[in-house]
Amino acid sequence: RGRGRLTPVKDVEVHVGGDEVAVLQAPNILIATGASPQSLPGAQIDGESILSSRHALALSKRPGSMVVVGAGAIGVELAYFFNVFGSEVTVLEAEEQVLPREDGEIAHLLAENLERQGVRVRTGVEVVKVRVRKSGAVSIAVAARASEKAEEISADKLLMAVGVKGNTAGLGLEAVGVRLGKGGIAVDSRMQTTARGIYAAGDVIGAPQLAHAATAEAILAVESMAGREPEQLDRDGIPSCIYCQPQVASVGLTEMRAREAGHDVSVGRFPFTASGKAVAAGETEGLVKLVFDRAYGDLLGGAVIGSEATELIAEIALARRLEATYEDLAHTVHAHPTLSEAVKEAAADAFGEAVNA
Questions:
Q1: Going by fewer Cβ within 10 Å, which terminus of the chain is more open, N or C?
Q2: Which residues are CB-neighbours of 96 under 8 A, at least 6 positions away?
Q3: What is the distance between the alpha carbons of residues 203 and 35, in angstroms, rounded to a whole number?
Q4: What gap in Å lies between CA 297 and CA 327, rounded to an integer?
Q5: Beta-bridge partners for 220
């Protein structure tokens, strides 16, 4: 166990302590060094007042107040988490919605729900300055994009959730001709880098930087090493899951992206307020939203907000992969009472065939 570095002849030098160096040789090498949280200029993560997600989860004492900078998956998950435990939480996001990668309608519903739970959500704002006081508390100057006037917010802790960047420093990449791309190491459709025989997978290659995506990328890389011709990874088919309450999950194109791609879309929705299982479980918050191509009925994407959204998304992901139409979903008999009935009903709703909406 030690720190590895590529050499110009594509060996791996492993520094195991002191002056001891082990040299490993192999016909293929897989780089999976992960990623590290990023900081805003002038507000470096210090592990004490300005925290990364790992620091936040290792706290021995609940902070009385916390400002979360960034409302992506990590930001909203931990905002929900600390709010539940009694911290006063404010979320700051530069984009116009929380979860900027998600469907706007779904993101709006989540923001409303978080605010009802007591989380203060501010979107379309920029962090102008961060100052750590002698007491360890943090002052954050925040300004709306349309205003030059800054507002100061104080908190016991600041959680930095503005994204992560691949761990590429000190690996000797330049010596073997491995190029970097946006967010990390550049790879082709087989996960091979610009250096023959060297592959990369996981957070180190950039978005989507999800555990299940990393697993799929690593399997693809190893199959490529073995000389197989594996199916290319459909990145739009990788589910996105956010583990706050209510949960959020999505796959494929959002409504906006589908329209921007030129599709004449038909959108179906089914609220959990109309689901017998959701009513019985007391989990009526949220809905299923499906996006179809109107001409052929092909499923382009879907999103769920509500109880067990991260479980329900699997059916939508599989349907999209199998090029299912609204009829395939709407005419598949779903057990009653189940939350998954909402997928069937949303498909039917998209083409005016809903029975229970």
A1: N
A2: 123, 124
A3: 5
A4: 8
A5: none
Q: pLDDT at position 146, please?
A: 62
Residue 306 inside a domain? The answer is: yes
Query: Which pLDDT belongs to residue 315?
Result: 98
**What is the per-residue pLDDT for 32?**
97
Q: Give dist(CA 306, CA 286) in Å, integer.
A: 4
Report pLDDT for 356.
81
Pairing of strands 138-144, 150-155: antiparallel
Maximum pairwise Cα distance, the chain: 73
Q: List residues with catalytic annotation.
A: 336
Rounded distance between C-alpha atoms, residue 185 and residue 206, angstroms? 7
Cα–Cα distance, 70 to 275 (Å, whole number): 33
Residue 50 φ/ψ, nearest 5 degrees = -110, 115
**pLDDT beneath 50, residues of the chain:** none
Same domain, 25 and 172: yes
pTM across the whole model: 0.93
The domain boundary residue, chosen from 126, 148, 164? 164
Q: Are 37 and 8 in contact (CB under 8 A)?
A: no
